[in-house]
Design goal:
Layout (H helix, E strand, L loop, with lengths): L5 E7 L3 H12 L5 E7 L2 H10 L4 E5 L9 H9 L5 E5 L4 H9 L4 E4 L5 H26 L9 H18 L2 E9 L2 H8 L1 H16 L7 E6 L2 E9 L2 H16 L2 E3 L2 E3 L3 E8 L6 H18 L4 E3 L2 H23 L2 E10 L4 E13 L3 E3 L5 H7 L1 H22 L6 E5 L2 H4 L4 H12 L6 E6 H5 L2 H14 L2 E7 L6 H4 L6 E4 L12 H15 L3 E4 L5 H9 L4 E2 L8 E2 L3 H9 L12
Parallel strand pairs: 1-2, 1-3, 3-4, 4-5, 11-12, 14-16, 16-17, 17-18, 18-19, 19-20, 20-21
Antiparallel strand pairs: 6-8, 6-11, 7-8, 9-10, 13-14, 13-22, 14-15
């Protein structure tokens, strides 16, 4: 408190001589201004505290309607934030200690107080209380958004459950997080990310009642506790209001940004009879909302629990798969459609499950990404593919390019280029026969860093291509400046290409775009003669798909290449993954 501000003091003392003494001591204070109000009874003090604001309370332990430290308890119940200085008749260390433990800031003894001591004790008490309040705030509230933090959220949950159980009310718990929040930090910086989180917090507050609890658990994760809810329709209305509110654009340092949110919802008592179960089920529902496509809300149901258990089991099995080396690579040939010359092979990851056999990547790649296992597995894929490329060279086969998919998390590693260079050196693979394939989303993340990595790869001699082109949000304004060798048309545009749908126009446009940028254009998922004929007619450079060959095990690849490099390739029926 500033030295020149007026300190508002409430004195609770029924002895007129003591009141006069305190008044004189305060008036003699060498510095500071004080406004003193005195009352003689505890109930009068409680009335004053409930109607007025005071900076400090001087509380006598000898009052007609009070009993020792019980006076302190009554005061704290009415005004828990006011610093209290207890004044007693005896110099008793144990009594002073009890007073401090009970919440008093200090203990003074009547007859041993002078002006200097009184003023100092009051100022210290005010400052200590302020520090205590700040520490309490930091322990229970998120500094960035001002919302309750995880600790206070759990306390509110406990209180909400006690209230609901006593009065037979329902509770709805919402788990929320922002979709693709990391891209904001990566592209605009953490300051913009913090600004977004603060704005999100304010928008959430506008969607719920004042007695509901919104908490930030950390990162971009928020929770909402809705007490005394009546039915699912009301909760759905709140969830939809949140989705609508978040759908409006955010202005971050001059940039207009659109951010969506996913929401998982669980009810007490239907979805859990204790806080831990309800939290777990709301989190499960949130995961289901993300699986459904994000920017939506999902209510928990028992089937989700089964799915979550299966997911946990799969994650555990994947961790074992890494340790037990259960992953294998299959290789699918890529051909030039006019000459049918073999141009490359693509390394495709498979999980050789000890019980299920070969497992397709669409059943586990997402979990590898989510758990971070994709980094170590992706590095193994790159190394194994380079080893295979070197083996083909030793077998005396003509040069064949090796295409390897790289995930976003793997590519975003700061030392990614160095790791690739190390693998090439250790395996002896020819970098000019290696092409790394990334998705459009990789290119949109942290454009300066992405550009630097692509140029570093190009300097080594490694080609790069964009996989699944047309399904992301790659910006043509910077695509033309990146050292990209090729683009691959996603199989979704090839499936119905011969039926006269818009897919044919899209595929044709991508081919024209790629050629205008001097890029090689690859079409994946080619399965029929008519698809091949269309792509050949449009000048597509490379095709791959079951029309020519399914992905081949590593041990079968050299034989297949040797046989088909010496003759015209005909369709080889597909039989598996």
């Amino acid at each position: 408190m500033p030295e020149d501000s007026t300190v508002r003091v409430l004195l609770v003392e029924d002895d007129a001589s003591e009141v006069a003494l305190i008044e004189n001591l305060i008036s003699e204070a060498p510095s500071g201004r004080f406004a003193l109000i005195s009352v003689g009874l505890v109930r009068q003090a409680l009335d004053h505290l409930s109607q007025n604001n005071y900076d400090v309370l001087l509380l006598s332990l000898t009052l007609p309607d009070g009993r020792g430290l019980s006076n302190l308890n009554q005061v704290q119940a009415i005004a828990p934030t006011i610093p209290v200085i207890v004044i007693g008749n005896v110099n008793d260390e144990r009594l002073a200690l009890h007073a401090v433990k009970a919440g008093a800031q200090d203990y003074l003894v009547k007859g041993r107080i002078d002006s200097h001591v009184l003023v100092r004790v009051m100022r210290y008490a005010i400052e200590r209380k302020r520090v205590d309040e700040r520490l309490t705030y930091l322990a229970h509230y998120d500094i960035l958004t001002g919302l309750p933090n995880r600790a206070l959220f759990r306390d509110r949950m406990t209180r909400a459950f006690a209230h609901a159980q006593r009065y037979a009310h329902s509770i709805a718990l919402m788990f929320l997080d922002l979709d693709h929040f990391k891209s904001i930090n990566d592209t605009l910086g953490h300051d913009s990310g913090d600004q977004l989180l603060k704005t999100v917090a304010r928008r959430l507050e506008s969607c719920v009642r004042k007695n509901d609890t919104i908490a930030r658990l950390g990162g971009d994760e928020f929770t909402i506790i809705l007490e005394d809810v009546s039915n699912a329709d009301d909760i759905a209305s709140v969830a939809q209001k949140i989705l609508d509110t978040m759908s409006r654009s955010f202005s971050l340092d001059g940039h207009e940004v659109f951010v969506t949110v996913s929401i998982g919802i669980a009810f007490y008592p239907t979805c859990g009879l204790d806080p831990i179960t309800l939290i777990k089920n709301a989190d499960t529902a949130l995961y289901a909302a993300k699986e459904q496509g994000r920017s939506c809300f999902k209510f928990f149901n028992p089937q989700m629990h089964l799915m979550a258990s299966e997911r946990l089991s799969t994650v555990t099995a994947l961790r074992h798969a890494v340790q037990r080396k259960e992953f294998v690579l299959h290789y699918q040939p890529l051909l030039e459609p006019r000459t049918q010359r073999i141009m490359a092979v693509e390394a495709l990851l498979r999980w050789n499950h000890p019980e299920k056999g070969l497992v397709s990547p669409n059943q586990f790649i997402a979990l590898l990404e989510e758990t971070g296992l994709i980094i170590s597995v992706g590095e193994w894929v790159l190394r194994a593919a380079c080893v295979q490329s070197k083996l083909l060279e030793k077998d005396g086969l003509p040069p064949v390019r090796m295409n390897v998919n790289v995930s976003m998390r793997q590519f975003q590693q700061p030392d990614f280029v160095n790791r690739v260079a190390t693998i090439i050196e250790e395996t002896g693979a020819n970098p000019s026969l290696l092409q790394i394939e990334v998705t459009e989303s990789v290119l949109a993340e942290n454009i300066p860093a992405t550009t630097a990595k692509l140029r570093a790869l190009s300097a080594i001699g490694i080609k790069t291509a964009i996989d699944d082109f047309g399904t992301g949000y790659c910006s043509l304004s910077y695509l033309k400046h990146l050292p990209i060798h090729g683009i691959k048309i996603d199989r979704t545009f090839i499936k119905d290409i011969e039926t006269g749908t818009n897919d044919a126009a899209i595929a044709n446009a991508i081919i024209a775009l790629g050629h205008s940028l001097s890029m090689e254009v690859v079409a994946e998922g080619v399965e029929t003669e008519s698809q091949l004929a269309f792509l050949r007619g449009q000048g597509c450079d490379i095709v791959q798909g079951f029309f020519y060959s399914e992905p081949l095990p590593a041990q079968a690849l050299p034989t297949w290449l040797r046989e088909n490099m010496a003759t015209t390739i005909h369709r080889i029926p597909a039989t598996g993954l």
